[in-house]
Known about the structure:
Low-confidence stretches: none
Strand content: 35-45%
Mean pLDDT: 90
CATH topology: Aminopeptidase
Largest sheet: 5 strands, mixed
Order of helices and strands: EEHEHEEH
Number of strands: 5
CATH architecture: 3-Layer(aba) Sandwich
Distance between the termini: 26 Å
Structural class: alpha+beta
CATH superfamily: Gcn5-related N-acetyltransferase (GNAT)
Radius of gyration: 14 Å
Amino acid sequence: xxxxxxELVGFSGLEAxxxxxxxxxxxxxxxxxxxxxxxxxxxxxxxxxxxxxNMNLIKLHxxxxxxxxxxxxxxxxxxFKLVGRFRKHFYIPGHGxxxxxxxxxxxxxxxx
Length: 112
């Protein structure tokens, strides 16, 4: 991801693409100094558009650490829905074991 000045601010991508089921795992990472500027929200919106319009996928999914409230907001702003929880699934230094929250977005929900 780059900002309008061409500065690298983070990374994002689609992986684990399942062509037959037409779904993919979406992820993003943003440098801390670039948080709260809308970059992650915009990058996710662009990935959703590309996945649904160009790749003809029908679903995107991801997992976010429960303490990561900013990332949860990014997902929900883009229409992703909470569909499950992996209890104490990840270890994060300073937080201990935390839940992983499963989010999904269907193409028909995105089009609304």
